Amino acid sequence: MQVIQQVAFIVCLAVAAFFISRRVRRIAGNIQLGRPLSRKDRPSERLKKMLLLAFGQQKMFDKPLIGLMHFIIYAGFLLINIEVLEIVIDGIFGTHRVFAPFLGSFYGVVIGFFEFLAIGVIITCVIFLIRRNVLKIERFHKPEMKGWPQMDGNLILTIEIVLMLAILTMNAADSLLQLRGTDHYAVVGAFTFSQYLMPLMAGLDTGALIGIERVGWWLHILGIMAFALYVTYSKHLHIFLAFPNAYFSNMEPFGKFENMSTVTREVKLAMGLMEDDGADEGEAKFGAKDVTDLTWKNLMDAYSCTECGRCTEQCPANITGKKLSPRKVMMDTRDRVEEVGNYLSQGKTLAEALEMGDALYSDRYISKEELMACNTCNACVEACPVSIDPLNIIVELRRHIAMEETGTPASWNNMFANIENNMAPWKFSPSDRFNWVEELNK
Amino acid sequence: MDNSQHFKAPLMADLAAEGRTPEVLFWVGCAGSFDNRYKSVTIAFVKILNKLNVDFAVLGPEEMCTGDPAKRAGNEFLFQMQAMQNIETLNTYGVKKIVTACPHCFNIFKNEYPGLGGEYEVLHHATYLQQLIDAGLVKMQGGGEFKGKRITYHDSCYLGRANNIYEAPRKVLEQLDAELVEMKRCRTKGLCCGAGGAQIFKDAEKGKEEVHYERMNDVLEAKADVVAAACPFCMLMLTDGVKYKEKEGQIKVYDIAELVAQAEGLA
Ligand code: SF4
Ligand code: SF4
Fold first, then answer.
1. Looking at B136-225, which runs of residues are DSSP E strands?
2. Residue B1 has pLDDT above 70, yes or no
3. How does pLDDT run across A158-188, given as a tens digit for each residue?
4. A375/B194 CB distance under 8 A
5. What CA–CA distance (Å, rounded) separates B205 from A414?
6. Helix or strand or coil: residue B24?
7. Is A378 in the pocket of ligand 1 (CB under 6 A)?
8. B74 touches chain A (CB under 8 A)
C-alpha cells in the first residue's frame, strides 16, 4: 500500500513538473517575442523597489484593509510552502511528518502557526468572494471582466479555501490517529486549530480516519500541483512575476516618453544636421501594431497583470464612460501574445503566426477609439500595485496610428499642421507671439 | 507699492546683441503667448520677475511649440523637428536655466530634450516661486483678498504623477492668507482635467461625461472659492468647467502666479 502511494506520488509530481515547466518555457518564449530593451542600470535601486513593491506590497496598502487581507493570503502562500516541502518529502520517501523528530515540541508550534494562517486565508478568501460577487464593487464588473476573468477570480479563491480545509481536516484526523497509537502516525500532539475538528471525527473507526487523513493529504498536495499549473494560465501569475516585474520596471520619471532613435536619424537627415552615411535602417517601423513591436517588458507586464482594475478605477477616460480601460489594454496584450504563441507552437513561423488572427491594434483587441481617449495622465501607472505601465503600450500604438497609418483624427492633423507651419498648435501667426508684451504695462 | 513701475520683458535677441546672457530664460509657451485668458498668467509672472529684479529674458517670436502635443498624440517626427529647432535656438543663446509656467513644456525640457542635445536646468514656476518664498524674497503680506477664502489646488498630471511635484505649488498657496482645502482626488490620485495627451485639440471620445465636468464635482464638493491651477491647459479646462456648472459668480480659477502677484500687489 505504502509503496503504491509513493509511486503514485512520484508519478503525479513528474507529470505536474512536466506540464508546469512546459508552460513556463512557453511564457518565457512569448515574453521574448518582444523587442529588446535594457533594464540593467541602477541594480540597487531596482532591488529596493522590488523589496518594497513585491515583497512589502507597498502599493497594496493604499487600501489598508484590503492590503492587510491580501497580505494574509500572500504570507499564507509563502509560509505554507514550508509545509509543502515536508509533504513532498513524505510523499517520495513514504515517511510521515518527517520534520517532527527534528523540531521536537516546536513542531506543534510551527504547524499551529500554519493552521492559524490557513484559518486567516479561509476567512479572507470568503470575504473576497463576497466582495467580488455580492458587494458589486464596480471595478470587478467592467465589460472586460465578463466570463473567464470573473470565473478565474472566483475559482482561485475557492481552490484556496478547499486547500486550506484539506490541511485542517488532515491534521484533525492525524491527531486522532496519534491518540489511538496507530502505526505510522508518530505522536506530535493535537494542533492549535484543527483540534476543534477532532470531536466531529472521534466516532469513526481507525480505517475511516486513515482514509480521511489520506484523502486530505492527497487533496492538498494534488490541489497544490494543479494550482501551480493553473496559475500559469491565469491572472495569478502575478504571484511570481510581480517580483521581476517590479525589478525591471521603469525607473525614470513617468512623464518621460522615450525619444525614438529611428526618428532622430531621419529628422537629422531632413534638417541637414547629419550627412547620409548610407546606413540603411532597413524597414524601420514607427510605433507598434502588434505584440512583437512592443518590448519584452510590455509583454511581461501583460503576464503580470492581476486584473485588479485599480488602474481602470483611476482612469479619467474610463471614469467618464469612454471605452478605454488600461486593464483591458493589458488583458488584450496578454491574450494576443498567447494567441501568437499558440500558433508558433503549432509549427507556424513568426510571420505566419502574426498574419493569423487580428493584430493587437484592431477592433478585436485594442481599437482606435480606445487609444484616442487616453489623457496620458499616468493615473493607471501610478495606481498599479505590480508596476505595470499600460500607458507605454497606448503610446506605442498611437505612434503607429500617427506615423504608419496617418490615421489620427482630423482635428489632430490640423494641430500637427499648425505646429509645423505656425509653430503653435493653434492657427496664430508666429510673429504675433510676443504681442502679449503690449498688455504688460496696461 | 509703486504703481508707476514700468515692467519689462527683455528679448533674448536684444540682450545677445549687447553681448549679455541673462541668468534665466522665461519660456512663455504657446498658451502663455496666445490664449487670451492665460496671457494674464504670463504677465503676472513677468511682473513678479520684474519686482524681484530677476535677470531674465524671453525668446518672443523665436519661441516655438516644444512639440508636446505632437509627441503625446504619437507624432514623434513632428516632436523631434520642433525639439531640434528649439534646441538650436536655446544653445545658440547659451541658455543655462529655463523657468516655465507650463508643466508640459517643463516635462519635455526636463525629460525629453536632454536626449536630443538640449540640457538645461529647468524649473516649473511652482518650484521657482517656492524657492523665492523660501529665500524670503516673496513675502506676500500685501494685497489680495484671500482672507477667509477656501482655495483648492488642482494637481497637474505633468507636474504631479509625471514628475513628482506635489508640494511646491501647495507651499506657495500656504503663504496666502487663505484656507487651503484638498479635493477628494488629489496628489497621486488627482483627477486629470481632461486636456492632457493632446485631448484638448480634439473632441472627446464617446462617453457619459466630459472629464473636466467630472472634475468640477470635486471642486464643488470641496466648497472652494478659488481653484488654483499650475498649468495652462488645466486652467482652460477648469474655467470651462466652472462655466458649465454656472458657478462663475462664486468660483474663480487662477494660476498660482496670479495669486502671488495679487498678494504682492502687482495685479
Ligand atoms: S494614462 Fe491614459 S489609460 Fe492611463 S489612466 Fe490616464 S487616461 Fe487612462
Ligand atoms: S495593470 Fe496593474 S492596476 Fe491594472 S489591472 Fe493590471 S495589475 Fe491591476
1. 150-153, 179-181
2. no
3. 999 999 999 999 999 999 999 999 988 988 8
4. yes
5. 18
6. strand
7. yes
8. yes
